[in-house]
Design goal:
Keywords: Ribonucleoprotein, Ribosomal protein, RNA-binding, rRNA-binding
Helix content: 55-70%
Protein name: Large ribosomal subunit protein uL10
CATH topology of the largest domain: Alpha-Beta Plaits
Radius of gyration: 27 Å
CATH superfamily of the largest domain: Ribosomal protein L10, N-terminal RNA-binding domain
Shape: elongated
Organism: Prochlorococcus marinus str. GP2
Structural class: alpha+beta
Largest sheet: 5 strands, antiparallel
CATH class of the largest domain: Alpha Beta
Order of helices and strands: HEHEHEHEEHH
Distance between the termini: 107 Å
GO biological process, one term: translation
Number of domains: 2
CATH architecture of the largest domain: 2-Layer Sandwich
Number of helices: 6
GO cellular component, one term: ribosome
């Protein structure tokens, strides 16, 4: 039995909502994947705020219709597709997808859309090679801490230097 019109409208509304919250969409060919493998992909994506949705291309077309950020996704809507919608940790989610693909050797990336632009395979791989959000934040914190330390040392050095100068001046005056 097919889906009702009301059910299809609910699916389109849900997809629109997910797209509005997403920064990136990756389209995978999921042909040949088992339910267990799809569950594995979904669990890998959970830690990175990624969601894997399998839906008909026609419903995805209705969801992106009129949304300029996602219009270019249209060119990827052929065949059997799984849509990975990524909210925050784009690099981590792409790494999770590539790790899954390496382990299963069944799924291929058809393409990705990031900030309204289709990405090539090499660009997708570059995103995966970026350090994680936590690593970048640690590097920034370390750099800021280094600057704060240098400022503190410099500020501390001013009174010390002044005290040394006064001491030398007073010793010269006494002699």
């Amino acid at each position: 039995m097919g889906r009702t019109l009301e059910n299809k409208q609910q699916i389109v509304t849900e997809i629109k909502s997910l797209l509005n919250d997403s920064e990136m969409a990756v389209v995978l060919d999921y042909k040949g994947l088992t339910i267990k493998e799809m569950s594995d992909l979904r669990s890998r994506l959970q830690t990175t705020n990624g969601i894997c949705k399998v839906t008909k291309n026609s419903l995805m077309r209705k969801a992106i219709d009129g949304n300029s950020n996602w219009n270019d996704l249209e060119s990827l809507l052929t065949g059997t597709n799984a849509f990975v919608l990524i909210k925050e940790d784009v690099g981590g989610a792409v790494k999770a997808i590539q790790s899954f693909q390496k382990d299963t050797k069944k799924s291929e990336t058809k393409g990705a859309l990031f900030e309204g632009r289709l990405l090539s395979d090499s660009e997708i791989k570059e995103i995966a090679s970026l350090p994680s959000k936590e690593v970048l934040m640690a590097k920034i914190a370390g750099a800021l801490n280094g600057i704060a330390t240098k400022i503190a040392i410099s500020i501390n050095e001013v009174p010390s230097g002044l005290a040394r100068s006064l001491k030398q001046h007073s010793e010269k005056s006494e002699s």
